[in-house]
Amino acid sequence: MGNLKVYSKREEKVNYLTHAFGVVIAAIATVLLVVRAIDAENGWAVAAYSIFGCGMMVCMAASTLYHYTQDPERKIRLRYVDHASIYLLIASSYSPFTLILIRNEGYWGWGLFTLIWLIAFVGIGFNFRELKANSHLKTASYVLMGLLAFIALKPMIEVAVVEDALASLYWLGIGGVFYIVGAFFYALARREFIHAVFHLFVLLGLISHIIAAWLIPIR
Fold this sequence. Notes:
Elements: H1 9-39, H2 43-68, H3 72-93, H4 95-101, H5 108-127, H6 136-147, H7 153-162, H8 166-188, H9 194-214
Helix pairs in contact: 1-2, 1-9, 2-3, 2-4, 3-5, 4-5, 6-8, 7-8, 8-9
């Protein structure tokens, strides 16, 4: 299976079930967020939440399918899709903040939105090249994409203070911590079920960012 990581059958069952649950969470959250935006008659919020929702569902579904399939050749192809979808999840997670919270803060909203998606597409392109399984470089790129939020931290805090939305930023930070801790488990995983622990931290990060997106004021 080339550089494909090998998991035990019982480990793979836990792996795909955790992110199958993630698909359900993402789908429910997307509906709730988009309906909220529609009720507020805010087109930007509808777009932002739709992008965020699609990124969540694609990532969770790709991971579920990758860990569920047993066919070696199909699994190799799905592994690339799985890793590429992480770039989509990270980039889409910026949408509620760039297109709603700081969209009117000069170049910050659109600038960060454009930058993160450019990086995501470059990352996806490199992802389909032959790299070592569990590439530390790839893992580092995910973490660095998440940390890019710090370049717009000042305007986000300023708007959050005015809009009484600091709780949203707290949950954004909490989710980031969960993802980073999960990334360490992913990069250092050697024992059975450690990858499932990584999945659990991803779910915690996902839920935290859903809460953060929900707490962004919509006018």
